[in-house]
Amino acid sequence: MSTNRTSLGTNVDQDRLCPSCGSKGRGVKPVTVESLVSEAARARAGRTDGFRFCAEPSCEVAYFHPETGDRFLRGDVAVRIGQKETTPSRPVCYCFNHSAAEIEADVARTGTSHIPDQITEKCRQGLDRCEETNPQGACCLGNVRRTLKEARAKVNRDAPVALAVHQESGEREEDCCAVGASRRSLLSPVAGRMRQPCTRSA
């Protein structure tokens, strides 16, 4: 996989690619490895600097060292790696313990979630410890906002289907004005917010 990426002229240095899956790895500081990787695994490697994080969901490698070839697997990491999971319970914010399921529940109920704003405010107060708690060794807001966007898209996509199922269930069909109002009540909280661009960097 790494050969194909370099042949396409992506200018990605070979040593940044995970040797297992070929995905680009993100550099992490020693404190991330020291905080999250088991002591036994760290002892085998003999060092904690120079590692890169692999976020590819299908890859068992969590961190790899481009120079030594050392690897830490998912099982070596003390926390669940949300980037490598698809379940609703996957963590998306490690400092303040938020999961994808919380965001999805907020969106299903109200059309949005204030969790990203809450995290932003706590970060402004200096309460975050991303390098020590997040396996990617960096702020989680990008992941949180991506989860919110995906949850909104799902609600927006499923709402008309739910309405169609209701109409086909044998109950009395509503008149066209009432149906239009129902569709707007289902869609507008999500669609209205989807049109508003995010003003914060992810």
Core attributes:
about 200 residues, alpha+beta, N-terminal domain of TfIIb, four-stranded antiparallel β-sheet, globular, disordered N terminus
In whole angstroms, the N-to-C terminal distance is 28 Å
Structural class: alpha+beta
Helix content: 40-55%
Order of the strands making up the biggest sheet: 1-2-3-4
Find the count of extended strands (DSSP E, 2+ residues). Answer: 6
Radius of gyration: 21 Å
Indicate the overall shape: globular
Strand content: 5-15%
Q: Spans with pLDDT under 50 lasting ≥5 residues?
A: 1-10, 161-202
**Strand and helix order:** HEHHEEEEEHHHHH
Rounded mean pLDDT is 80
Main sheet makeup: 4 strands, antiparallel
Give the domain tally: 2
Please work out how many helical segments DSSP would assign: 8
What does this structure look like?
- The chain is of the alpha+beta class.
- It has two domains: 2-76, N-terminal domain of TfIIb (Single Sheet); 86-194, no CATH class.
- Helices cover 45% and strands 8% of the residues.
- It has eight helices and six strands, in the order αβααβββββααααα.
- It has helices at residues 2-7, 30-36, 39-45, 100-110, 115-124, 130-133, 141-167, 176-194; strands spanning 26-27, 52-53, 61-64, 71-73, 91-93, 98-99.
- The strands form two sheets. The chain has a four-stranded antiparallel β-sheet. Strands 5-6 form a two-stranded antiparallel ribbon.
- Helix 4 (100-110) packs across helix 7 and helix 5 packs antiparallel against helix 7.
- The protein is globular.
- Residues 1-10 and 161-202 have low confidence and may be disordered.
